[in-house]
Design goal:
single chain, 210 residues, 6-stranded mixed sheet, 5-stranded mixed sheet, 9 helices, 11 strands, 34% helix, binds 1-O-pyrophosphono-5-O-phosphono-alpha-D-ribofuranose
C-alpha cells in the first residue's frame, strides 16, 4: 500500500468537532486535534496525514490549489464559491438550509416594486431568483444579515438557518426554503489522479463511518 502524505483541510468552527469525531471513529489518533491550542496544522500520528484548520472559503482555495488533497466544507460555501474540485461525499452532518426570510407576517411578494434582498451569499441568492425569473436587487452584507430588514435596508434576507433561533429572536421568519446544506468531502482533481489509492482509501473509510 502506497503511503503518500495526505493533507486534509478542515473548516474551523461548527463542522470541526463532528469532523474530528468522524476521524476518531475511523480509528485515527486525533489527540493533536483535540488539544490543538492555537496550532493550525495538526498531524494524525502513524497515518502520514496532516490536518489544516481554515475558514470555509479558504478550505476550498487550499484544495483547489492542490496544497491540500482533501477538504471538509459546507455545501453553503461550495454553492457560493464554486471552484475546480470534485465533491465526492455528503457527510450528512452540519445540516442546515438556505432560506429566504422576512419580517414575521410579511409577504415577500406583496406589491409590484422590485424587492431588495440582503445576504452574505450573493451568488446563491442571484441563482435562486434568476432560476425563477424574479428580478431582485441584492445587497451584500458581511454578517448579522438579520439586521437588514429590521432597519429597512431590505425586504428579505437569504441566509443560513439552522435552529431558527436567530430569526425568531429578531422577529423574522422563513418565507421559503432555498436549498439544503450539509458538510461535504471535496478532493483536489490532481490528487485524485496522483494519490488515487490513498485518497480513495480515506474517502471510503470516511463514508463507512458516517
Ligand atoms: C449563521 C447565520 C445565522 C445563524 C443561524 O451565522 O448567518 O445568523 O447562523 O443559526 P440558527 O438558525 O441556529 O439561529 P453563523 O453563526 O454561522 O455566523 P456568521 O454570521 O459568521 O456566518
Amino acid at each position: 500500500m502506497e503511503n503518500k502524505k495526505i493533507r486534509i483541510a478542515l473548516t474551523k468552527g461548527r463542522i470541526e468537532n463532528k469532523a474530528v469525531d468522524l476521524l476518531e471513529k475511523i480509528g485515527y489518533d486525533v489527540s493533536e486535534l483535540r488539544n490543538k491550542g492555537r496550532k493550525l496544522i495538526l498531524s494524525v500520528p502513524n497515518e502520514n496525514i496532516e490536518v489544516v484548520l481554515a475558514k470555509a472559503a479558504d478550505v476550498i482555495t487550499y484544495v483547489e490549489h492542490g496544497v491540500c488533497d482533501l477538504g471538509i466544507v459546507g455545501k453553503d460555501t461550495i454553492m457560493e464559491h464554486g471552484g475546480r474540485f470534485y465533491e465526492i461525499a455528503d457527510l450528512g452532518f452540519g445540516k442546515c438550509k438556505f432560506a429566504l426570510a422576512v419580517k414575521k407576517g410579511t409577504d415577500f411578494f406583496a406589491g409590484y416594486g422590485v424587492k431588495t434582498v440582503a445576504t452574505k451569499y450573493p451568488n446563491v441568492t442571484r441563482g435562486y431568483f434568476e432560476k425563477r425569473g424574479i428580478d431582485v436587487d441584492i445587497v451584500k452584507i458581511e454578517g448579522s444579515v438579520e439586521l437588514a430588514p429590521l432597519v429597512g435596508l431590505s425586504d428579505g434576507i437569504v441566509d443560513i438557518v439552522e435552529t431558527g433561533t436567530t430569526l425568531k429572536e429578531n422577529g423574522l421568519e422563513v418565507f421559503c426554503d432555498v436549498a439544503p446544506v450539509s458538510a461535504r468531502l471535496i478532493v483536489n482533481t490532481v490528487s485524485l489522479k496522483l494519490k488515487q489509492e490513498r485518497v480513495l482509501e480515506i474517502a471510503k473509510l470516511i463514508e463507512e463511518n458516517l
